[in-house]
Amino acid sequence: MLPALVYLALAAFAAALLGSLHAGRVVVLHLVLAVGAMPLIFGAMSHFIPVLTRTRAPGAWLGSLPILALAGALLAMAAFSLPDMLWGRYAGACVAASAAIAMLIWSRGRRKTMLGRPHPGLAWYEAALACLVLALLAILASAFWPQQWAGLRRLHLHLNTLGFIGLTAVGTLAVLLPTVAGRPDPEVGPWLRRHLPWAVAGTLLVAVGAAWFGPLAWVGAVAWAIPSGRLGVRWLRRYRAEILAWHGAAPLLAAALAGFGLSILFGAAATFMPALAPTSVFVAGFLPPLVSGAATQLLPGWRRPGAQGAWHTELRRRLGRFGGVRAVLFCVGGIAGGMAREGGLLLSAATLLWFILQAVAAMMNTRTIPQEKVR
Ligand code: HEM
After folding, report:
1. Which residue from 38, 40, 160, 168 has its CB within 8 A of the most atoms of ligand 1, so it is best to mutate?
2. Between helices 38-52 and 168-181, what is the axis angle to 10°?
3. CA quadruple 115, 111, 177, 66: dihedral positive or negative?
4. 20 to 30 Å CA-CA from 22: which of 111, 160, 233, 367?
5. Does the pTM of the predicted model rise above 0.90?
6. Pocket perturbation via mutation, ligand 1, pick of 26, 70, 89, 165 by most ligand atoms within 8 A of CB
7. What are the tens digits of pLDDT across the range 256-295?
8. What's the rounded Cα separation, in Å, for the pair 292 and 287?
9. How many angstroms does the Cα of residue 292 sit away from the middle of ligand 1?
10. What pLDDT is stored for residue 106 in this prediction?
11. Cα-based distances in Å from 369 to 272, 304, 348, 360
């Protein structure tokens, strides 16, 4: 299931970035965020939550939650495209919110049944799911308060991008980059615990501020800059060699963190420079390096779970070839996209297509490698 969700996300990103010149903005954004990213995040959470709580693998029913989320996203997409289907927005929001609430209840249940304290990354995932539920409730609320539509739409936008996707991404990146580098960071647990309140406060202040009271959004952007900025500085101190490399997943994961920080910066700057396009930084400069970097590290283990062998090492090496070059191209694409240059989105789309083709070739060429144990 997880590899299929990775392929779906990559295909949705590439299709949306390529189609961005022709299709409507809301459709393109939901193709990337709701059809591509949301089901993948659900799949990744159902994989990581048992690890974070040291509990058994989930039952098969949990596999239906990413599909339920995808169904909600598809309903919303249909509603955006068909003029007579306004009800599809509300139905899509209900379906996706049910999937998020079910995942949240399951995660809370895992907390109760585990021995000891869960890994602090779990609280980041639960906060992210809570943001998604609130973001979808904002869409439902617009049916009752149409006069608040503009504010509720901005609330939905920021709770989803900075909250649902941002909290999941930064909470995962903090653990994933040290794993990729092969040198775990003993401080990552306390770091996650200390910085979650800043990230949650930042999300809520930006969302409420952008919806109803501008100055609050500035305070929120500063609050979010604290965890993301500190993580970046910490990485540069500990993992500089891996990040500034030609190959591997580390440059892409670092580019994703930089892209996230730039989205917040462009969002703040857009209040006095309306020509800027922060959501383009998010979809061209943050999500593609995040998903391609995470896929480079995690896809081999998801394709063949169990003992890590020569096949995993070789596939990871092939997926990560020229990861450093792609990281730079995604950064340039994100910044150009944020400055409303269409070429930026196309550059990111082309870079992502390069990764997809490289991944297909890597899978085909490693098929014959036996799965014997390497370490
Ligand atoms: C699956 C259920 C969802 C529904 C029913 C839904 C519904 C909507 C609606 C009705 C709008 C306003 C469209 C307009 O201005 O006409 C909107 C905007 C937006 N939504 Fe969603 N959404 C969903 C999921 C998501 C997710 C998962 C994300 C991100 C993770 C997301 C991000 C956004 C963004 C960024 C905008 C602003 C688009 C713009 O700038 O014009 N949505 N959504």
Report:
1. 160
2. 60
3. positive
4. 160
5. yes
6. 26
7. 999 999 999 999 999 889 999 999 999 999 999 999 999 9
8. 8
9. 23
10. 96
11. 56, 12, 32, 16
